[in-house]
Write a structure and sequence with these properties.
Length: 58
């Protein structure tokens, strides 16, 4: 999911360089939403792992 967020961020940068403001704004918005979802799922996974009491693999 983080890869998708980075992909949309790169698309937004390229679109902004070429002057496509609408596409750049939409891609940046999508990247932000995907990153927030990724961060929330990451925190949930950390909490679930901590509550189970198992140590993460090294």
């Amino acid at each position: 999911m983080l890869g998708w967020a980075l992909t949309f961020f790169i698309i937004a940068i390229i679109a902004a360089v070429f002057g496509f403001g609408g596409i750049a704004a939409a891609s940046a918005g999508i990247a932000q939403i995907i990153f927030i979802i990724f961060a929330a799922l990451f925190v949930v996974a950390l909490l679930a792992n901590a509550l189970r009491g198992r140590r993460p693999p090294v």
